[in-house]
Each structure stands twice: as C-alpha cells, then as structure tokens.
Amino acid sequence: MSSTIRTTQFSILDRSRTREGHPEAAALQDTVALARQAEQLGYHRFWVSEHHSVPGVAGSAPTVLAAAVASATSTIRVGTGGVMLPNHRPLVVAEQFGVLESLFPGRIDMGLGRSVGFTDGIRRALGTDKDATADFGEQLDELLGYFTGAQTAHPQVHARPAEGLRLPAFVLATGAGARVAAEAGLALVIGDVRGREKMLDAIDSYRAAFRPSALWPRPHVVISGTVAVAGTTEAARRLLVPEARALAHSRTHGVFPPLRPAGAASGGERMTERERGFYEDAMRGHVHGTEEEVAEALGVLLERSRADEVLVTTSTYEREALIESYERLARVAGLVGRG
After folding, report:
1. What is the Cα–Cα distance from 79 to 98, expressed in whole angstroms?
2. Max Cα–Cα distance, the chain, nearest Å
3. Cβ-count burial of 5 within 10 angstroms (0-12 exposed, 13-18 middle, 19+ buried)?
4. C-alpha radius of gyration, the chain, whole number
5. pTM for this entry
6. CATH class of segment(s) 5-229+305-316
7. Which of 3, 112, 191, 236 has the fewest beta carbons under 10 Å from its own?
8. Are residues 306 and 17 in contact, defined by beta-carbon separation less than 8 angstroms?
9. CB 224 within 8 A of CB 193
10. In whole angstroms, what is the distance from residue 266 CA to residue 61 CA?
11. Contact 223, 305 (CB under 8 A)
12. What number of CA atoms fall less than 13 Å from residue 59's CA on the CB side?
C-alpha cells in the first residue's frame, strides 16, 4: 500500500441523489445523515452540490443544505461543490457564506463553479444564459473582494457579515476553471479522474501558473471522482450501476432520472444499442474494487497527480452499501485516529 494514501486528506461530495420509490425529502435527509457518518469515520470535508430542475437530484440550494449539515455535525469541514457563480450575484453569495462562517467559524469552505443551467428554460428561470461563464473571473474577483473589503465593482457596497472574514475558496475546474483558479491563487478541484491524462495536464498547468494569495500561499489540488469499495470486485462494480444507468438514460431521453436498484438498472434487454454504449462508457474508468485493489489504484493516482486531497463523489441506490463503501475507504486511507 502506498504511504501517500495515509498522508492524503479524503473528503465527500454528496449530490443528494434521489432514489426510485423515495421522496425527494429523503435524499436531503440522507445527505445530512451521511455527513454525520463521514465525521465519525474521519473524513476531512463534506460538501454539497447545486443542481436546478434535475429530477434525480434534490440538492438545489447548497448554502441552505450546508447550514443543515453544519448544524448536524461538530468537527468536519462543510462546504459546497459548488455554488455556480454565474447563477448568482456575488454580493448574495458573499453574504450567504458570511452567515455560514459566522455561525460555524473555522468550518466552512467556499467551493465555486462556473457552470450554468443545462437547458435554455432553466437558464432563463435563473436569469442567466450560456455566455455567463465568460464573466466568471470578474464575478470571482468581486466575490472575493467583498470578504477583503477591496472589491471595486460597487465601491459603496459592503457584504455583511462577510467583510473581514477569511475562509478557504476553491474553484471547480471545468473548461477554463483551472486557469482562473491559478490566476486567483485559489485551490483547484478537478474531476473526474476517468479523464486521467487530461486531468494530469490541467493540474500541471495550474501549478505552473499559480499565483500565491492570502488564502492559498501555494497550489492546492483536490482530485474528485467515484470511488467504490466492497468485499469483492463485482460487488464494488455493482455500486456503479445505478448512476451509470441514470447517466445513459439522460443521454438518450433528455431526463436524468432517480436512481434504481442495480438489478433493475442493469438489464441489457431494457436498453437500446445507443443507450447501452453510453452505459458501458459510464461504467469505465472509476476507482472500484476490494480494499486492496482500491488502495493500489489510489496509490498510483496520487503518486502521479501529487494531489493534496481526494473528494469522493460516489452515488448508488443502496444506502447501506454506500455507507459500507465509505467505511472501507476510511480503513484504506487510515482516516480514523489521524487526529
């Protein structure tokens, strides 16, 4: 087993995936319950995500859900993976994180992304458009300026209670995100690990272009992706099936559905040839297997990427199996008792 695993921080991003036959409220309650378990297992951070008008995802208001998670836990860091800045005004985002940091001092992470809604209708409802990502750098500067009191977009405006607070900021690397993170001197969150060579190239570029900042004096890389651990390789692979099947369905039907049990989701006779292609592609490249197999795969990945953290984003229908996977991964990484 690589010693690098035992010195790397491991964290969880939960997207509050809905499950067939269960109400959306259950997905949010499951997220809060998982955060408590993650804290007990020794995970470093627990993040929640932002999705709008997606039938299979209940996580639509990340700062609200982060408040619930922080209230239900006491030591684990809590944040967003991430707030999609093009969907919001920087002042409002600063105020929301200012409130979170004031209520839970020293535990809040501000993870920021540059994605916009998936469809024209969602983008219109959010008051944005496809081109909004082009302004991400300016939005980020304004947002960070509200915390330092140095923003110039609206000189007479002050974000309260954000001004003067200092909390870690991360940029989710989609497209030009890695370059923006480097220029702003922020931590980089990059995934998924399936596109291995592209990911490694982006990390190298980020480190080369990094400009030290008050928040991050040196580059900080968080790699993000699915990690599934079980007693057998096949059992771990089955954990991947519900999410892969949902992704294949979305690519062919235009709707991202709730997760279904692996047995119901894997029947080849229920898929068209095109859908089967998307399904098989979605099943490839993830880190999964027994504890020994996952330890070996993660060791290679960490040695090559020199990442500081791993952010695990696994989703599956069976909650008990998901929790067991995180328990096994915590053993692989030696999280409990690290201090």
Report:
1. 12
2. 63
3. buried
4. 19
5. 0.94
6. alpha beta
7. 3
8. no
9. yes
10. 31
11. yes
12. 26
